[in-house]
Write the structure tokens for this entry.
Amino acid sequence: MKPELTSLKKFRDILAFMNLPVFSYIDSDDFAIIKLHDMGLKMPYLTPIFRPDYYTLTIIQGGKGTFVVGDHIYELGPQHVFMKQPDVYFSSGWTESPVGYSISFTSCFFEKYFPHGIDDIPFKNNINAFNYFLDQKHFSKFEEICEQIYCEAISVSNCKYEMISNLLINILLLIQQHQNTIKLEIQDEKNAAIVTSFLKNIDQNFNMLISGESTAILRTKEHAKLLSLTETYLSKVVSKTSGKTINQWINDRLIDEINYLLKNTDKPIPEISEMFAFSDPKYFYTFFKKNTNTTPSSVRKNFNASHSDRVHVYRGNVVNIRPTW
């Protein structure tokens, strides 16, 4: 059994679609915090597939679950901190009732109260999420801040979102204190800013492809034009700063998106090919095989053949958690 694929992106729409409570204090799609143990989930619980337009930060005090972000799997349990980026395929399943908090916020919310934005959250190696297991000492700090955020969220204070944004910054700073410094930030700030903008443009391009707003994958020429740079200069900056070429960034993202749809949906392969701007099906197969050493049909066949009877179990590239900080 594969999760249902939906086109919903907004937090309250997603809750309503799953027949989950949309509490009255959730008055915006730009920010929300919920207590997972108040949602009335019946085990085992499997969500549809969404592509939300917001960041998700999940603090797990108890329970056991599996999150799938793109083509990567994350196993969650007590004392885990999980975070994912917006605009990426996401589904989840729980086998033991979760206890903890889920915080959702958009870039617009954060930038309104913290103008510097959140570009420095270190999602590394083109992975759109991270998952950590903490010792109790470190985890208790997250619990305390989440409880403060929740209390502010359910209050009627006129300045509650200003307070929430400050508390949210504290959580993000705690995460950053325990992560390796991303290589982009060690190097020249100007080059890092260029690469950050380049990666944002890749995200936007793929979001538009999937929503049907665009029919072309942007390559070096188009990305250089968007950033008002020469192709040679952009190529040099991206390669030197990130360790990957422009085409490697784009092709890795393309393969990740295709793999997810092959494994987790029943969308016909020709439709997937067309979605990602391949006008020639033969070229789609050639491109995919060159980059994966297998064919699209083989990926789907092997995945389906290994599918477990337990509907909450997902498939993909398993992403190991760090045992501690």
Remarks:
- The longest helix spans residues 189-211.
- The longest strand covers residues 90-105.
